[in-house]
Specification:
- By secondary structure, the chain is α+β, with helices and mostly antiparallel strands.
- About 20% of the residues lie in helices and about 55% in strands.
- It has 2 helices and 9 strands, in the order H-E-E-H-E-E-E-E-E-E-E.
- The protein has an 8-stranded antiparallel β-barrel.
- Strand 8 and strand 9 form a beta hairpin.
- The N terminus is likely disordered.
Length: about 130
């Protein structure tokens, strides 16, 4: 009986360890697309509304390299940035010594805020498969 109980405890510990390790595996690496902008005044634009206005943004992140592409009114802008993992679920996108944005990763989305006060907006990106 003691052996069975010990075996069950060990199996439970192993399963819990695998679950914890699996949850902590999410990285920001991959391809991301802008799906929503939320403005300080409460206005929310989803991906199709942004695209109707001629706006789209994408990130390709690999290691500490970030390739950013923004299409605004038919004009494409490409930037190369450095990714800095802050170690707390946030990541900094840097251009030289300048922080472009600090993103918060939550599973298959990341968000960051741009602007201040009445001009503030939250950008939400989703991982592409």
């Amino acid at each position: 009986m003691k052996k069975v109980r010990l075996a069950m405890i060990l199996v439970t510990i192993i399963i819990m360890s695998i679950m914890i390790t699996g949850c902590g595996n999410a990285t920001i690496e991959g391809d991301w697309v802008l799906v929503k902008e939320e403005f300080e005044d409460g206005e929310v634009l989803n991906q199709s509304e942004l695209e109707e206005q001629g706006i789209s943004e994408k990130y390709h992140i690999s290691g500490d390299e970030v390739d950013y592409t923004c299409l605004v009114f038919g004009q494409e802008i490409n930037l190369e940035m450095e990714l800095v993992d802050n170690g707390d679920g946030t990541y900094e996108f840097r251009i030289g010594n300048i922080s472009f944005a600090t993103a918060t990763l939550k599973r298959n989305t990341f968000t960051y805020d741009i602007g201040e006060g009445d001009d503030a907006a939250t950008f939400t990106f989703e991982r592409q498969k």
